[in-house]
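I have been asked to look over a protein record a colleague put together. What it holds is a sequence and that sequence's fold in token form. Please read both lines and tell me whether the tokens look consistent with the sequence. I do not need a full report, just your reasoning and any doubts. This is what I was given:
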Amino acid sequence: FLVQIQTRFSTVEATVADVTGAFGARFVRAPYGYFLRTADLAITVTVPNTVMFSAAPAADGVALVGGAFVPAHAGVYRFTFQALAYNAGGTANSVSCWVRVDGADVAVSALILTVPAAGLAVLTLDILLPLTAGSSVQPMVSADGTGLQLVSYTGSAPAFTVHRPGATATLVMVSGPTP
């Protein structure tokens, strides 16, 4: 009987170590951040433009530092960026969007979208990023023609239309660091 109890305690200890260890599920809530950019951004032609964010309505374990997103813990994160692009020009233009981590462009993260003349388009970028604690994540945009900008939308008609910030971003841990 005593051996059975010792075996059970050993199993419980091993399970606790797995759950709370460096590579276990130590997070009851995954680190996350939700960020907004409410100011419009005129996109400079053929030059990388950093999309700086100014508000973090909800964040735990991901900070907004100098307009960039900085996770407090290493892991694999899902980064989602969404922006409303407006083309004030007379011809269709393309806007490019990609991610920089620690100042370096992330390979295969680019999205290119054509925005019609005097039209709107929604940019949506969704990518998994392996990050270290303290990494700096920044969304970038560029355009091939003049008149493109990221804009906020203030709903006025119909009455139930709500305000849409010029850009939103989320950074959410989906997995802890790999061993």
